[in-house]
Amino acid sequence: GAGVSQSPSNKVTEKGKDVELRCDPISGHTALYWYRQRLGQGLEFLIYFQGNSAPDKSGLPSDRFSAERTGESVSTLTIQRTQQEDSAVYLCASSSRSGQKQFFGPGTRLTVL
Amino acid sequence: GDSVTQMEGPVTLSEEAFLTINCTYTATGYPSLFWYVQYPGEGLQLLLKATKADDKGSNKGFEATYRKETTSFHLEKGSVQVSDSAVYFCALSAQGGSEKLVFGKGTKLTVNP
């Protein structure tokens, strides 16, 4: 596609449920990033994938958060046993390689009731 | 750890006014510095960047100069337009590593006709 796409655009879930968020990067982009934007806050880095290298998971806030990426394509961010503080906009970005301009998707707005 | 501090908003200006949004950073080494913009209803997009000290990034009439001595990267525009109304984020990417972005909290700008 022309840009980074994310699905769903909105997700409302109940506390304790698991959710999966999807990111489709720009074709050919080897680097993929997940960020979180809570209300009134800046974006927080969560996780980074670069090719077949081990991902940088240093930003994941707890072991309830995990992410996978198959090759250089789709990535899914999974949040288990969601909590109200997980409510945020989750943004995905991709770049042609590490250090290059990051292109952001429209985000998934997650609301945990 | 690395961090970015930008002036709190919201900022409200009249059309053709001068804009400054302050941004300072804390980082080891020589990070790359960025301004991202999020227009209403749109995704985050790169506005300008600078990768080394004294570099000036510019785009769409906006400018920012990388000042190593004051660890700053203030955003300026000489004459704002209504269409500049958006949220502006200052960010850095640390030298080496995963090139993840560290963001400030964002500054909401509203320009009135």
Alpha-beta classification of chain A = mainly beta
Q: Kindly report the oligomeric state of this protein.
A: heterodimer
Rg of chain B computed from alpha carbons, rounded to a whole number of angstroms: 14 Å
Question: Beta-strand level of the residues of chain B, as a percent range?
Answer: over 45%
Mean pLDDT of chain B: 93
Describe the overall structure.
The complex is a heterodimer of chains A (113) and B (113). Chain A is mostly beta strands. Chain A contains no helices and 10 strands. In chain A, the strands form 2 sheets. In chain A, strands 2, 4, 5, 8, 9 and 10 form a 6-stranded mixed beta sheet that branches. In chain A, strands 1-3-7-6 form a 4-stranded antiparallel beta sheet, with no helix packed on it. In chain A, a hairpin with a 5-residue loop joins β6 and β7. The termini of chain A are far apart. The relative contact order of chain A is 0.33. Chain B has 113 residues and is mainly β. Chain B is built from no helices and 12 strands. In chain B, strands 2, 5, 6, 10, 11 and 12 form a 6-stranded mixed beta sheet that branches. In chain B, strands 3-9-8-7 form a 4-stranded antiparallel beta sheet, with no helix packed on it. In chain B, β10 and β11 form a beta hairpin. The radius of gyration of chain B is 14 Å and the shape is globular. The N and C termini of chain B lie far apart (41 Å). In chain B, 38% of the residues are buried. The mean pLDDT of chain B is 93. Chains A and B meet through β4, β5, β8 and β9 of A and β6, β10 and β11 of B.
Give the helices and strands, then pairings:
The complex is a heterodimer of chains A (113) and B (113).
Chain A: E1 5-7, E2 10-13, E3 19-24, E4 31-37, E5 43-50, E6 65-69, E7 75-79, E8 88-95, E9 103-104, E10 108-112
Parallel strand pairs in A: 2-10
Antiparallel strand pairs in A: 1-3, 3-7, 4-5, 4-8, 6-7, 8-9, 8-10
Chain B: E1 3-6, E2 11-14, E3 19-21, E4 23-26, E5 32-38, E6 44-50, E7 56-59, E8 62-65, E9 75-77, E10 86-93, E11 101-103, E12 107-112
Parallel strand pairs in B: 2-12
Antiparallel strand pairs in B: 1-4, 3-9, 5-6, 5-10, 7-8, 8-9, 10-11, 10-12
